[in-house]
Amino acid sequence: MSMFMVVAVCAAFMGSCSALNNGLGLTPQMGWNSWNHFHCNINEELIKQTADAMVSTGLLQAGYEYLNLDDCWALSRDNKTNVIQPDPKSFPSGFKALADYVHGKGLKFGVYSDAGTKTCAGRPASLGYEEIDAQTYASWGVDYLKYDNCNAGKTKPEVRYPVMRDALNKTGRPIFFSMCEWGVDNPATWAPNVGNSWRTTGDINDSWGSMIGKADANAPLYTYAGPGGWNDPDMLEVGNGHMTTDEDMTHFSLWALMKAPLLVGCDITKMTSTTIFILTNKDVIAVSQDTLGKQGQRVKQSTTTKQEIWAMDMSDESKAVILLNRHDNETQAITVDFHEDLGWPAGTAAMPRDLWAQKNMTAVHSMFKSDGLAPHSVQMLRFFPQH
After folding, report:
1. Is 133 a residue of the active site?
2. Which of 52, 100, 185, 203 is catalytic?
3. Do 367 and 336 form a contact (C-beta atoms < 8 A)?
4. Other C-beta atoms within 10 Å of 386: how many?
């Protein structure tokens, strides 16, 4: 059903839509967002350079299609029309021209607003202006909206967020709706009818403790995710420099297996070859983008050894598996039992593929034991059952 047909049906029978119905997010979104690295230090030239780099570094080819501005782009509203105005010093060409530039690179263009009276950085927000803002975004050619939760008073997000959903629906333009209410009101239980993704945590920072804490908070919510709507433990910190390479690989592995949005948060004009390798690994991205759409889950955890096993069903009956050593200073081997941990019949044989080494391994029966895994590192595998 087209967006225009959806809007017509909703208007005829309900007056407004009770679901997003935009056909987007059938797999978790992939792209870039300005906040984690640049915060408010954004401008037109930076966005153009980022668009260029998304093409030249291979990110677009790997699947990263959204280029998203976060907070601090808006300055005011027009006194007569109330149309939101980008900061003319930072964005002198305006957002229609900037969106055209981004689209010309084969990318999609995203913006940020807030379901309150002001954004988190104190800029103009959308509460009470939902329809005019949605129509403005559509006229610019916006493809993605991140919608924050600051300065909202006492009104619950369950009330505020559907208003913007309906306003986006009315534009007739498919605009990905990324809800950012930080998990404060259990959005996984009600947001699947409102947004394409919903934040389940507070803001991430570039540290092992923050990253693994966000994974822990997001992990129990696996039953709520699926095609069209995803749990979001916040954006990627890969490449921002404060975690080790092993920790960045663990971060990316967990986000892929949890079907979290893969939104790059570093300066992609200055990525190292290692960062590019991590972010463009086709085998790991294939786990994220598998069309079965089942979020992976933690299937075994030892509080003594700090060993964990995570697993996810794939559409071809294989299983993606992460063997995670959370210990802070001990190297450890981890064993996965195909029956006990993966639910396969006893005695099952499977061919493992190491997704970071990008190589197939010799078939094994009943179980697989890793080599020693360094602290905070993973071995990410895909097991293909041998019938």
Report:
1. no
2. 203
3. yes
4. 11
Q: Rounded to an integer, what distance in angstroms lies between the CA atom of residue 359 and that of residue 380?
A: 11
Cα torsion angle, 236, 240, 243, 246, sign: positive
DSSP string computed for 167-207 = HHHHH-S--EEEE--TTTT-GGGTGGGT-SEEE-SS---SS
Decide: 195 and 207 in contact? Cβ < 8 Å: no
Spell out a b/e string for 99-124, using b for 16 or more CB atoms within 10 Å of the CB, else e: bebbeebebbbbbbbbbbeebbbebb
| Residue 316 identity | D
Q: Is the dihedral of CA 266, 272, 275, 281 positive or negative?
A: positive
pLDDT tens digits for range 293-302: 999 999 999 9
Which residue is catalytic, options 71, 114, 143, 148? 148
* 41-94 pLDDT per residue, tens: 999 999 999 999 999 999 999 999 999 999 999 999 999 999 999 999 999 999
Residue (of 127, 103, 131, 107) closest to 117 by Cα position: 127
Question: Pairing between strand 262-264 and 74-77?
Answer: unpaired
**Other Cβ atoms closer than 10 A to 51:** 23
148-198 confidence digits (pLDDT tens) = 999 999 999 999 999 999 999 999 999 999 999 999 999 999 999 999 999
Residue keyed to tokens 């960045």: 248
CA atoms of 145 and 161, how far apart (whole Å): 12
Query: C-alpha angle with apex 50: 48 to 51, nearest 5 degrees?
Result: 65
Residue 72 has, within 13 A of its CA and on its CB side, a CA count of 14
Kind of pairing, strands 349-354 and 377-385?
A: antiparallel
User: How far apart are the two ends of the chain, measured CA to CA in Å?
Assistant: 40
Q: Which two structure tokens, joined as six digits, stand for 334?
A: 């981890």
Whether 100 is catalytic: no
Contact partners, residue 382, CB within 8 Å, separation at least 6: 283, 287, 314, 318, 319, 320, 321, 352, 353, 355
**Residues listed for the chain:** 387
Provide the 3-class DSSP secondary structure of residue 207: coil
Residue 262 has pLDDT above 60, yes or no: yes
